[in-house]
Amino acid sequence: MTDRQVLLRRLPAVDRLLNTPPLSELAGSHAHAQLRTAAQRAVDALRQHLLADGEPLPDLTPEAVARLAAEYLHALETPSLRRVLNLTGTVLHTNLGRAPLAESVLQAVVEVSRGYSTLEYDLAEGKRGERHVHVEELLCRLTGAEAALAVNNNAGAVLLALSALAGGKSALVSRGELIEIGGSFRIPEIMAAGGVRLVEVGATNKTHFDDYRKAIGPDTALILKVHTSNYRILGFTSAVTGEELAALGTERGVPVLEDLGSGLLLDLAQLGLPREPTVRETLATGIDVVTFSGDKLLGGPQAGLIVGKQEIVARLKKHPLARALRLDKMTLAALEATLRLYLDPQRALREVPTLRLLAISAGELQRRCQELLPQLQAAAGNRAELDIVATTATVGGGAMPLAELPGFAVAVTPRHSSLQQLTEHLRHGDPPVIGRVQDDRLLLDPRTLLPGEDALLVKALEQALT
Ligand SMILES: *Cc1c(COP(=O)(O)O)cnc(C)c1O
Per CATH, which fold does 103-351 belong to? Predict the structure, then answer.
C-alpha cells in the first residue's frame, strides 16, 4: 500500500465528524441532513485531494475535517448575489450592478412585491388592464413622446424595434456606428438576430447625407442611428445629424430609430459633465423612435425604454418579442418610482443616487478622504501605509467614456503582504470590498462609498490586513 492509500483509511467517518466541533455546534441551527451533506462533502474533497499525486498532504484530524465541513456549510449559506462595497469610483459599474436605487424607489418595490398589485388591473374599470400604463404616461411627459414602452433592457429594446420595424427587410446603418457594447451586444449581430438585413453606409470615419439617400431602396424598412457610447472617432470625421436623417425618413416614408444607449432625461452639463442631447431633444429632431437604458445615467432599474411616435410604438407593442421581453412587477415599480422623481428635476438631482454621485465635487471627496483616513489608518495599524491622492473617476456603463470626474482617493500600500493578497482578502470579506489598483497601490475612492458604509469599510480593511 502506498502512503496515500494508508492516509485514505485515516479519513474520519461522517458520523464522527457530526460529533466533532465546530460542526457539532451547528446542530441547533441546522437540519441533520444539511450537516451530514457538508461532512460528506468535506470527506469527498479530501479523498480527491489525497488521490491527486503531488498535492501537499492535508490535515486529517477530525477537528480539521469538521472545520472544513463547517466552512462548506457557511459557503453554501452565503448568497451568491450579494452586496459589495464599491470603492472603484466608477458610478455605473456594470459588473457591480450599475445604478444603486433611491430610497423611495426601494420602498415602492417592497410595497408592490409583498402582496398583490394593480400590475394588469384597471381600478377605474374593474377589469383587466395593461402593465405598460404604469410608466407610459410618465415617459411621455418626461420626453415629449406620443407613446412609450418599457422592456427588459436596452439590448432587448433595440432587438424588439429592429424585429418589429425591419424584420425580413433591410436597415441602413453608418459604418462608424457598427459598434460593440460590452457583453457581446454588437449591432451587426443583433440585426441578424432580428432577421434584419444590414446595409452599411458611408465609411468608418465619415458618413454623408448622400450615402444614406443613395442607399435607400424598395427593401429599406428602417434607418438606424446608434450612439457610439463607449468610443470616439477623432480627427477627420463627419456624421449625419438626427434632423437630417429624420427629414430623409419622412421624405421617403422610412422610419428612423435612434439607439441612444444611456439616455438622459436631464442635461447633466449642470453637473460639469459633457453636454449630451437628452431624450427630449433627440425626439425633437423628428426621429421616430428612441431607445435607451433604465440603469445607466437615468439611475433606475435595469430596463429598456422605447419612446416615440404613436403609430410606431403601437407596432412594437403588438410584436411577440414585446411579450417575451416584458418587465416584471418589481422592475416596473422601481422604474415608475424613479421616473416620478424626475417630475421635479431638482428632486431627481437630490435623490437619484447616480446623479448625486456624479455631482460630488473634488473638494467634497477630499474632505471625505480626510474623514476616512484616520479611521482606516487606525484599522490598518502598521500593516499598511495610507495617504490621500488626487485621482479621476469614470462614469462607467459605457456612458460618457471620455469624461473624467476629478476627485481624491485613499491609497493603501500593504507593508507585510502583497497588493494582490490585500485585494484578494478584501474581495473575500463580508461585505466584499472592490477597489481600484493603480501604480502599485490600492485606491479606495469614496465617490461610490454610499451613506452608512464607512464603518463596514473600516472593519473590512482591518480584517483583510490581519
Ligand atoms: C448600453 C447600451 C446598450 C445596451 O443597453 P442595456 O440596457 O445594457 O441592454 C445598447 N446600445 C447602446 C448604444 C448602449 O450604450
Answer: Aspartate Aminotransferase; domain 2 (3.40.640)
